[in-house]
């Protein structure tokens, strides 16, 4: 055990690089996004321990501070910079909002069927205008299993 601690104390770069790789591997398995920032901080620490004379306690303290700061800032600002619209990737109907298609038949009583992205969907409209068969429509929302559409 003493030999392992001595090896780690004499090679701090590899300890931090190994921790970065392990955290990145765990992040790739979980896909949560929470371990990405600690992995990046461990990689930064690998470089810092080569440049600055930090003992183990100082290095762990700097790593903790970097991890807390980067996790907070990353979770707070990165989604805004990336322009994410926060739609659920598994929400097939929600992803149809903004798509265009055609009516399969004439709408009666503000209800009918539309063909969008290769599929036929039940749809409703708030418009008083009649939508004839083949009319161009745009999806404006989702109400259960029905799409809300308007004339395009």
Structural summary, described in words:
The model has no long low-confidence stretch (mean pLDDT 88). This protein starts with a helix and ends with a strand. The chain has helices at 2-10, 12-30, 36-51, 56-82; strands at 100-103, 111-116, 119-125, 136-143, 146-151. A five-stranded mixed barrel has the order 1-2-3-5-4. It has two domains: 2-82, no CATH class; 94-151, Beta Barrel (OB fold (Dihydrolipoamide Acetyltransferase, E2P)), CATH 2.40.50. The longest helix has 27 residues, at 56-82. Strand 4 (136-143) and strand 5 form a beta hairpin. Helices cover 47% and strands 20% of the residues.
Main traits of this protein?
152 residues, alpha+beta, OB fold (Dihydrolipoamide Acetyltransferase, E2P), five-stranded mixed beta barrel, 4 helices, rod-shaped
Shape estimate: rod-shaped
Q: What strand line-up does the widest sheet have?
A: 1-2-3-5-4
Helix content: 40-55%
Return the average pLDDT rounded to an integer: 88
Quantity of strands, as a count: 5
Flag low-confidence runs: none
Question: Structural class, please?
Answer: alpha+beta
Number of helices, where a helix is a run of at least 4 consecutive DSSP H or I residues: 4
Give me the Rg, rounded.
Answer: 27 Å
The main pleated sheet reads as:
5 strands, mixed, barrel
List the helices and strands and how they pair.
Elements: H1 2-10, H2 12-30, H3 36-51, H4 56-82, E1 100-103, E2 111-116, E3 119-125, E4 136-143, E5 146-151
Parallel strand pairs: 3-5
Antiparallel strand pairs: 1-2, 1-4, 2-3, 4-5
Helix pairs in contact: 2-3, 3-4
């Amino acid at each position: 055990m003493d030999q392992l601690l001595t090896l780690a104390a004499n090679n701090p770069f590899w300890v931090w690089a190994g921790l970065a790789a392990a955290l990145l591997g765990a992040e790739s398995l979980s896909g949560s996004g929470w371990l990405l920032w600690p992995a990046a901080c461990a990689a930064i620490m690998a470089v810092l321990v080569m440049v600055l004379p930090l003992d183990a306690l100082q290095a762990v303290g700097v790593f903790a501070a970097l991890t807390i700061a980067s996790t907070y800032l990353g979770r707070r600002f990165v989604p805004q910079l990336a322009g994410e619209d926060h739609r659920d990737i598994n929400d097939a109907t929600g992803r149809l909002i903004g798509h265009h298609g055609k009516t399969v038949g004439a709408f009666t009583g503000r209800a009918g069927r539309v063909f969008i992205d290769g599929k036929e969907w039940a749809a409703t409209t708030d418009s008083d205008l009649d939508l004839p068969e083949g009319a161009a429509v745009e999806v404006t929302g989702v109400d259960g299993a029905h799409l809300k559409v308007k004339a395009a």
